[in-house]
Amino acid sequence: MKKKTYLTRKDTIDALKKMKSFHDELINFMSSRGFDILDNLGRRNILLSNAQEKFFSEVLSKKFEVEHSGKTGEPDIVVKTLSRELECKLTSPHKTGAIAFQTDYRTLKKKKSLDYLYVVADKSFDKFAVIHYYDLTTDDFRKLSTGARGKTQLMKHKASDKAVFLFGGMESINHINLLKLNKKLKNVKSEASRNKILKSIEYWKNTPTKYKIKYEAINES
């Protein structure tokens, strides 16, 4: 499928710089009152989520007729010129290093399909990866599980053909491991070690692709 996006890299950098400036002002404000918002990145991202919607809607409004209310229950951004709804999501790695691309399952099921803008930020809010997914459906997400509070996670390998990387990116952990294993295979001496490596190669060839985020710093752009 042809990858589509109505955001450019320049749009993305402009919006990220505004988000970074707002983030730094927020840190200073909270710090002056004895709070460290970096202690809990989930809460930090909640505070920045509306800024993501606002600043990306501003860059889009330079080219399209855009609607952004910021109200709960309303679409994050509506690109009226193109009749597109864009869901904005800001996320950071968990302590385990895992990064979840979530959505509200029932909302997506009701809408049938939506565009998503996932911004992945590191702890210091200096480095990012920004991925625009076009026309995601419930088939691209895991089935809703008990206790998930209506949230479900994107299966990145299933939605890879709908992804446009606007800043930073993702690389295949499968590919990285296969390169390392094939290099080891050339120098293996024992049959037992060879069989072990071949078993690992088979695993990484057949398991659904896992991804590693490649961050990019806005001050290097």
Q: How much strand content do the residues show?
A: 15-25%
Counted beta strands: 11
Structural class by helix and strand composition: alpha+beta
What's the main sheet like? 7 strands, mixed
- Element string (H = helix, E = strand): HHEEEEHEEEEEHHEE
Descriptive overview:
This protein has 221 residues and is an alpha+beta fold. It has five helices and eleven strands; from the N terminus they run H-H-E-E-E-E-H-E-E-E-E-E-H-H-E-E. The protein has helices at residues 9-31, 41-60, 105-111, 173-187, 191-206, and strands spanning 66-67, 77-79, 84-91, 102-104, 114-121, 127-136, 151-153, 163-167, 169-172, 211-214, 216-217. Strands 1, 2, 3, 5, 6, 8 and 11 form a seven-stranded mixed beta sheet that branches. Strands 4-7 form a two-stranded antiparallel sheet. Strand 5 (114-121) and strand 6 (127-136) form a beta hairpin. The chain is globular. It starts with 8 loop residues before the first helix and ends with a strand. The mean pLDDT is 90.
Sequence-ordered SSE layout with sheet pairings:
Layout: H1 9-31, H2 41-60, E1 66-67, E2 77-79, E3 84-91, E4 102-104, H3 105-111, E5 114-121, E6 127-136, E7 151-153, E8 163-167, E9 169-172, H4 173-187, H5 191-206, E10 211-214, E11 216-217
For the structure shown, list the relevant keywords.
two-stranded antiparallel sheet; 11 strands; alpha+beta; globular; 221 residues
